[in-house]
Specification:
The protein is of the alpha+beta class. It is built from 10 helices and 12 strands. The protein is rod-shaped and about 160 Å long.
Length: 466
């Protein structure tokens, strides 16, 4: 079942709200008019009772002769005079001799004015309103009853009711139509964004959604979507650059490998030349395998799937393990490699991944730096810093800000010796452990590269028999 368009839903909600408002307003007007007409009727009865009470006090002035008086309207108003026993002493023409009050109402009226309602009175088959009050004539205490029909009140209420029943639906229809138009006007900006979004693709970089200057949620939505498009565009650009750089890096060793093999096939005249060609090809294959492993590691980290085998490690032991792997390299190049002193500082991490990251830092120091390479541990504010420093010329200042970018090199040269992924992998591994990676130049010369990891409490091992 298709969903109702949002424009119709907004118009429908507006119509329901207007129907409730119109119904509530009509009910309020109806009740208020009924109340005002009832108050006006009671006020008229009191005035008429005062006039008739003054007439009754005059001798020889019967109520029956007052039909032509301005305060008794024939067919709409009536009056009756009762004695204390409930007998009718006088009455206007429409009434009969039956008293209008019950015995209880008569007793109450002798004590003060009372109001009463009747569905009908003799001679007038209409709902009526009565006012009974005590009067005195020639020393006798009597009860004067004046009344009026509620026909005018009923007619006024009926007229209002009919007008509301006619005007209400018309007003509701007009309000619904206005709501539909206003909803369409309000959603016009959204429709404009939808059309532009349908036209945006990877082949139209830089296109953005139109931003209406309305200062409301629609404007904020357009800005948020444009920011999202910017992030997606940047991510696509990074992926394209990554693929392009990866392709370039893979093409170079593949071309060299192909050249070595072709030379071996065409020009190798001895077993030694063939072995040399195979040895050179093996080195290129090793480089290709390492590059593929590095690319796979970065791709896994981008998807958040870099698996870690966490354990508690002593920081200086971790650095000593890395230093032992590079002792032969340091001896071959005549570069001193100083391992750290025992620190007693522990971290929580994956030994293999952390050794890989630290090995990349040591590799860079031995390859690009000079002098002694030092490994050290520092503990600051609950964090552990694992440093690798050298005594060379340091990093170029313009390279420090992009040192951890993929395929970044200090000299931007695409040499055989480096893929430009070493420091990127260091950052990926550090961030996977909840840490960070940094590089800087020492004031006294040389480069300093380090990773920062959260400090962990040492694991307490219980000895047997303890």
């Amino acid at each position: 079942m298709r969903r109702v368009p949002i424009r119709l839903r907004v118009a429908g909600a507006f119509a329901v709200a207007m129907a409730v408002v119109l119904a509530g307003t009509g009910w309020f007007l109806y009740v208020r008019l009924d109340s005002h007409l009832s108050l006006a009727l009671d006020r008229g009865l009191r005035l008429r009772a005062q006039d008739l009470a003054a007439l009754i006090r005059e001798p020889g002035a019967p109520l029956a002769g007052a039909n032509g008086a301005p305060f008794v309207e024939e067919g709409e108003a009536f009056a009756q005079l009762l004695d204390g026993g409930g007998h009718v002493l006088d009455a206007t023409r429409p009434l009969r001799t039956k008293p209008l009050l019950t015995a209880a109402e008569l007793r109450a009226a002798l004590g003060g004015a009372i109001m009463a309602d009747r569905r009908s009175v003799p001679g007038l088959d209409e709902p009526s309103r009565l006012l009974a009050r005590p009067v005195a004539r020639r020393g006798r205490r009597l009860v004067l009853v004046v009344g009026a029909t509620r026909g005018d009140v009923a007619e006024a209420l009926a007229s209002l009711r009919y007008e509301l029943l006619i005007a209400g639906p018309i007003a509701l229809a007009l309000a619904s139509a206005a709501g539909y138009v206003l909803a369409g006007f309000s959603l016009r900006a959204v429709e404009s964004m939808r059309r532009r979004a349908a036209a945006i693709s990877a082949e139209t970089p830089g296109d953005r959604l139109p931003v209406p200057e309305t200062g409301d949620e629609v404007e904020r939505l357009a800005k948020t979507l444009n920011e999202m498009l910017g992030r997606l565009e940047a991510a696509v650009a990074r992926e394209r650059d990554f693929v392009a750089d990866a392709g370039h890096e893979l093409r170079t060793p593949l071309a060299l490998l192909r050249t070595e093999l072709e030379l071996a096939l065409r020009h190798a005249h001895s077993a030694e030349e063939l072995r040399e060609a195979v040895r050179s090809s093996s080195q290129e294959v090793d480089r290709l395998a390492q590059l593929a492993e590095d690319l796979l590691l970065i791709a896994r980290s981008d998807r958040g799937k870099l698996a870690l085998q966490l354990e508690t490690l002593e920081a200086s032991d971790l650095l000593n393990s890395v230093a032992s792997r590079f002792e032969w390299r340091a001896e071959e190049t005549g570069r001193p490699l100083r391992p750290p002193t025992p620190s007693g500082v522990h971290i929580r991490g994956d030994r293999i991944r952390l050794e890989q990251a630290l090995a990349n830092l040591v590799e860079n120091a031995l390859r690009h730096g000079q002098g002694e390479v030092r490994l050290s541990v520092a503990s600051i504010d609950g964090l552990v810093e694992l440093h690798v420093t050298d005594e060379g010329s340091g990093f170029p200042p313009e390279f420090l800000g992009r040192a951890f970018e993929r395929f970044a090199r200090a000299d931007e040269a695409r040499t055989r010796g480096s893929s430009g992924l070493g420091l990127s992998i260091v950052r990926v591994i550090a961030e996977a452990h909840g840490g960070s990676a940094h590089v800087s130049n020492n004031d006294g010369g040389g480069a300093d590269a380090w990773i920062v990891l959260p400090r962990a409490a040492p694991t307490i091992r219980k000895e047997k028999g303890a």
